[in-house]
Specification:
It contains 8 helices and 13 strands. By secondary structure, it is α/β, with parallel strands linked by helices. The strands form 3 sheets. A 5-stranded parallel sheet has the order 2-1-3-4-5, with helices on both faces. It has a 5-stranded antiparallel sheet with strand order 9-8-7-6-13, covered by helices on one side. Strands 10-12-11 form a 3-stranded antiparallel sheet. The N and C termini lie far apart (37 Å).
């Protein structure tokens, strides 16, 4: 029975694609496969997946460029697959809108855990009450629609990870939130000693909220504590 979600695996290695497809299907997922970006977008057009597993190294357009294009035009969660030594690429992947990353070689069970965690968070956001809205200094965060709007009604595109991170911040406005709390809320896992995913997504959020001054006044970094959303927030329906 395949009712746990639809996963699109994008990797130019046929053996990896087939092994992941078999493994994920055995755990209740439906799986589509693509060897490059062109086929990936064809698959998405045919049936929108719940999550994309996207390899960094692809023929033609690379995974980073595809991640940027996909995250700017949709809220489909993305897990990047990267080489062990490519920490800079992992960071750039998160900057481009990926929700999480996993280094090759990896245990398929670790990928399964990451997929389940990201889908769980995405589902929780999607199932929030339709009327839940948060307003702060001219901004509107609509939980039901998963949209961020400026005061003039302009939509600001957010990746699914950025949306969940902003939701966690505004729901806990004017409270110090640790990196571990935010990582658990957005990715469903504890942070490792070199895990910078929260910091990178926060940096993206600050730019999108135009909070890029030296002394950020919307999302403050609390030394030794974590982060705090400083603006008063009004919650409505």
């Amino acid at each position: 029975m395949t009712d746990k979600g639809h996963i699109l695996v994008v990797d130019d290695d046929m053996e990896i694609r087939e092994l992941l497809a078999l493994f994920l299907r055995d755990h209740g997922f439906s799986v589509s496969l693509a060897e490059d970006g062109k086929v990936m977008f064809q698959q998405i057009k045919q049936a929108t997946p719940d999550l994309v597993v996207l390899d960094l190294m692809l023929p033609g357009e690379d995974g980073l460029s595809l991640c940027r294009r996909l995250s700017s035009g949709s809220s489909i969660p993305i897990i990047m697959l990267t080489a062990v030594a490519a920490e800079a690429d992992r960071i750039v992947g998160l900057e481009m809108g990926a929700d999480d990353y996993l280094t090759k070689p990896f245990n398929p069970r670790e990928l399964l855990a990451r997929i389940r965690a990201v889908l769980r968070r995405a589902t929780a956001s999607a199932e929030a009450p339709d009327g839940d809205q948060f307003q702060f200094e001219g901004w509107l965060l609509d939980i039901g629609r998963q949209e961020l709007k400026r005061e003039d009604g302009t939509l600001v595109p957010l990746s699914s990870g950025e949306f969940r991170l902003l939701q966690a911040l505004v729901e806990n406005s004017q409270q110090v939130l640790s990196r571990d709390f935010l990582l658990d809320h957005t990715h469903g896992r504890e942070s490792g000693p070199y895990d910078r995913s929260v910091d990178i997504q926060l940096s993206r959020l600050r730019r999108k909220l135009e909070d890029t001054a030296k002394d950020s006044y919307i999302i403050k970094t609390i030394r030794g504590g974590g982060y705090m959303f400083c603006l008063p927030v009004t919650r409505g329906h």
